[in-house]
């Protein structure tokens, strides 16, 4: 095996944690058509191929328009279970051993699907995968930032009976024009409830939005964070706080956040001492799950063995797992890298 083949092999086989994944973004066209038929719901597209051909995005909003259309066929608890289980089985093959997944309750409540239906389906699959595949998980409820703060508060109220199943809160959807400060009060309440908090920031939005995620929301993690690199004081602050960035290389490529993977800032982030991690975001729409993202980085950038090792460790260190579990995974990664010169 050449050294580049050995690096790729290691990237594929190493244990992984995925920290930035929207469960509704794992909806593969084949499964979407099957569930649409089961629920007697019409889709805008007649064929799987037609739908796949529509996956050409110029920006985040282009994608979100299709993403909300796609999820509209999810109606019953079984649908949420099947969606989640398909994702878990798929990434188990990529040696993902721990997942921290988002769901967008408001994207379903607006269609009359109860909070209970959604969370029972998703949580049921996570528990079954824990038992049958040995995977661990955290579930993150995400607020849609294009809606108002009152709607986020209503969602939080619906979530209250299920707080034992909810491990954290996020902020996603259309970033431009919807800065984190719009949600200052609801995140204050989430924090008072003891929930860890993360927010999409700096995917398309300016550094100012990342500052707000830090200073107004008080995030424990940052989703994306690409545009933070435009502000050296911001980089220094993120580094000082030791915050993890959940970076999504293939997503950034598909949504035109970067022109090529060679231009992707993930290696610069590592060089700056930021805790970057690799994630798939919405793999069914962006052409790749976890190993596809790592495959692209290894084959299309000059990523080194040390950088790969750091990325693997950062994911567990930045996870919301307990210290002992983190250490067990970190030891296993070190063991694997030590075996390959
Ligand atoms: N990449 C992304 N950015 C913002 N909101 C999202 N919802 C699903 N994927 C998203
Ligand atoms: Zn995302």
UniProtKB/TrEMBL annotation:
Substrate binds at residue 282. Binds 1 zinc ion per subunit. Residues 15-335 form the Adenosine deaminase domain. It comes from the Bacteria. The keyword Hydrolase applies. It is an enzyme of class 3 (hydrolase). The record marks 224 as: Important for catalytic activity. InterPro entries: A_deaminase_dom, ADE, Ado/ade_deaminase, Metal_Hydrolase. GO terms for biological process: adenine catabolic process; hypoxanthine salvage; nucleotide metabolic process. SUPFAM superfamilies: Metallo-dependent hydrolases (SSF51556). Its cofactor is Zn(2+). GO terms for cellular component: cytosol. Zn(2+) binds at residues 20, 22, 200, 281. Keywords: Hydrolase, Metal-binding, Nucleotide metabolism, Zinc. The active site is at residue 203. One of its GO terms (molecular function) is zinc ion binding. NCBIfam families: aden_deam, PRK09358.1-6. Catalyzes the hydrolytic deamination of adenine to hypoxanthine. Plays an important role in the purine salvage pathway and in nitrogen catabolism. Belongs to the metallo-dependent hydrolases superfamily. Adenosine and AMP deaminases family. Adenine deaminase type 2 subfamily. PANTHER family: ADENINE DEAMINASE. This is Adenine deaminase. It comes from Marinomonas fungiae.
């Amino acid at each position: 095996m050449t050294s580049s083949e050995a690096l790729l092999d290691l990237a594929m086989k190493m244990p992984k944690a995925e920290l930035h994944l929207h469960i509704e973004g794992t909806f593969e066209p084949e499964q979407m058509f099957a569930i649409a038929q089961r629920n007697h719901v019409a889709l805008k597209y007649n064929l799987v191929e037609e739908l796949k051909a529509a996956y050409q995005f110029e920006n985040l909003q282009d994608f979100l328009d299709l993403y909300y259309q796609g999820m509209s066929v999810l109606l019953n608890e079984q649908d949420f279970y099947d969606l989640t289980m398909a994702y878990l089985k798929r990434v188990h093959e990529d040696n993902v051993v721990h997942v921290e997944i988002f769901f967008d309750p408001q994207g379903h409540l607006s269609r009359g699907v109860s909070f209970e239906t959604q969370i029972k389906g998703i949580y049921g699959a996570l528990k079954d995968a824990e038992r049958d595949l040995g995977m661990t998980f955290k579930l993150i409820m995400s607020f849609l930032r294009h809606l108002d703060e009152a709607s986020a508060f209503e969602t939080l109220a619906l979530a209250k009976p299920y707080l034992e199943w909810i491990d954290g809160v996020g902020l996603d959807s259309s970033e431009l024009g919807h800065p984190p400060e719009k949600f200052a009060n609801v995140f204050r309440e989430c924090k008072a409830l003891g929930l860890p908090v993360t927010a999409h920031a700096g995917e398309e939005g300016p550094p100012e939005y990342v500052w707000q995620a830090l200073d107004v929301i008080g995030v424990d993690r940052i989703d994306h964070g690409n545009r933070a690199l435009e502000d050296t004081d911001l980089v220094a602050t993120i580094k000082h706080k030791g915050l993890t960035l959940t970076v999504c290389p293939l997503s950034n490529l598909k949504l035109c956040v970067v022109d090529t993977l060679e231009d992707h800032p993930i290696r610069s982030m590592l060089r700056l001492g930021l805790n970057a991690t690799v994630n798939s975001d919405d793999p069914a729409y962006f052409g790749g799950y976890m190993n596809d993202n790592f495959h692209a980085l290894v084959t299309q950038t000059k990523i080194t063995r040390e950088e790969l090792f750091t990325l693997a460790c950062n994911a567990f260190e930045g996870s919301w797992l307990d210290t002992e579990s983190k250490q067990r995974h970190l030891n296993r990664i070190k063991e694997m890298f030590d075996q390959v010169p």
